[in-house]
Amino acid sequence: MCITLTTFMMLNMKLLYVIFFIGFNLSAFTQSSFELQNGKSDKIHFKLVNNLIVIPVSINGVSLSFLLDTGVSKPIIFNFFNLKEELSIHKTELIYIQGLGKDKQVEALRSSNNTVIIGEAVSLNQDLFAIIDTSINFAPSLGIPIHGIIGYDIFKDFVVEINYSRKFIKLYNPLFYDSKLSRKWRKLELIFFNKKPMLEASVKSQNQVVPVNLLIDTGGSDALWIFEDSNQSLKIPTNNFDDFLGKGLSGSIFGKRAVLESFHLKDFQLNAVNVSFPDSSSIEKAKINKFRNGSLLGDVLHRFNWVFNYKSKWVAFKKNKFFNKPFEYDKSGIVMQYAGVRLVKSQIRIPNKTLGSSTAQSTQNSNTITFSSTYKFEVVPELIISDIRPDSPADQAGLKIGDVVLSINNRNLSSLTLQNAIDQFYGPDGKRIKMTIEREGVIMKYFFKLRDLLHKKSTN
pLDDT tens for residues 200-214? Predict the structure, then answer.
């Protein structure tokens, strides 16, 4: 059986804060493997979109963009029925799968015998899932074309180097990999559960150091997730607030945001680290593993360069240029997403220089400048407010879900990508924000100040 569908390509915008969480095991497949065409190694450059790694992937001859996600065990294609370029997948059957989030299971096509190419790595008999539900579409929140996720199938066949600072991954044939690392590197044993890698670390909160076992999840842009457990002193810090944490395959994920005193990975220490405590109902599947205490995500991962060796069950890491970057979070309470495009009309004033004549009162010629007007039309991205945190500065100012964003701090849509827009909300405590929005055809202006709920208190 072969199904032909189309690929949807979006405007090249960027996301600042979005999280992907899948959280289910896809292990009931035939064994497939990747091989390097040159036999030794291959370097593949990636886009780093708010700590998420986006790599080029070819499936059955069609070029796509995938997230590299250590937290998923089989490739997944999203938004399948909206693809524009022809794409065929083979030997399909209908199944139901459950991911993170509170919603119900979703329909998917389980497919085998697909050809997948990543750089010079080729798999001629690759298994994958294709999500049928067109409403499960992460692209509006990401702002760039993302067609799927791939993880374990790459890591199991190669030694994989992830260089966040220079934005490339390198795939090594394990038979040719030189495991000698400089003194700057540290090593830890990898622990696997359902094909997903975990490591040992520790966190310090309320003057208490607690050891934790964390899933390594390159598919999440947050910093740390911790599963609350009073028996292991993994309690939510007193200074916290309720927030939207991200989107899973089975719906939105909410929880508490807070700050840990420090995070320790071997002898490396990060201070004042953002942490999220997801609601237990959203992570019911993830907590099946009683050994796991949470997830190590992109906002920490990207501060190191990594080498993963699944076959030998170890991971190595060293700090990079991002290591000392302060941890930030959205202080406005606004969640925005891309909602298509809109046509914007703007006026252009063209100067016309006219030479004047001398008069009796003046012995010099004078120049008069007049202007003629013309108009230009631009197709620009349309951003909407998709969620607002209750009692946040944006909520108290009167902004509402569904408002169309026209400008932020006098930057209009022609120069305002999704990442540029959200960047404005990561500023210092007390920063003044001016927003122009459209609501039901009426243009309105709103003002508020960013408020830091975690590091210090302020008033608007």
Answer: 999 998 888 999 999
Residue 51 lies in a domain: yes
What residues are paired with 20 via a beta bridge? 247
> What residue numbers bound the domain in which 157 lies?
2-175
**Does 352 share its domain with 386?**
yes
Q: Which amino acid is at 453?
A: L
Closest C-alpha to 13, from 147, 167, 142 = 142
Q: Which residues have C-beta within 8 Å of that of residue 139, sequence separation ≥ 6?
A: 8, 10, 78, 79, 145, 146, 338
Look at residue 165 in the predicted model and tell me its pLDDT. Answer: 96
Same domain, 184 and 163: no
Token reading at 285: 């599947």
Do both 262 and 385 map to the same domain?
Answer: no
Q: Helix %, strand %, coil % for the chain, to 5? A: 10, 50, 40
Looking at the fold, whether 135 and 199 belong to one and the same domain comes out as no
343: Cα separation from own chain's centroid: 28
Q: Do both 25 and 164 map to the same domain?
A: yes
Q: Are residues 344 and 395 in the same domain?
A: yes
Q: What is the CATH number of the domain that holds 185?
A: 2.40.70.10
Structural domains counted in the chain: 3
Last residue of a domain, one of 287, 319, 351: 319
How does DSSP assign 94-162, residue by residue?
Answer: EEEE--SSSS--EEEEEEEEEEEEETTEEEEEEEEEEE--TT---HHHH-S---EEE-HHHHTTSEEEE
Identify the helix (H) or strand (E) that includes residue 439: strand 432-439
Q: pLDDT, tens digit, for every residue of 100-149?
A: 545 567 788 888 999 999 999 999 999 998 887 766 666 556 567 788 99
Claim: this prediction has a pTM higher than 0.85: no
| Contact status, residue 424 vs residue 434, Cβ threshold 8 Å | no
Candidates 145, 14, 51, 12; CA nearest to 420 is 14
Same domain for 398 and 443, yes or no, is yes
Task: List CB contacts of 420: < 8 A, sequence separation 6 or more.
Answer: 14, 411
SS3 411: strand
| DSSP 8-state symbol, 184 | T
Which structure tokens are listed for 112?
């085998």
Of 285, 319, 353, which residue is a domain's last? 319
Q: Are 25 and 123 contained in the same domain? A: yes
Give the number of other Cβ atoms within 10 Å of residue 29's Cβ.
Answer: 16
CA distance 299 to 233: 24
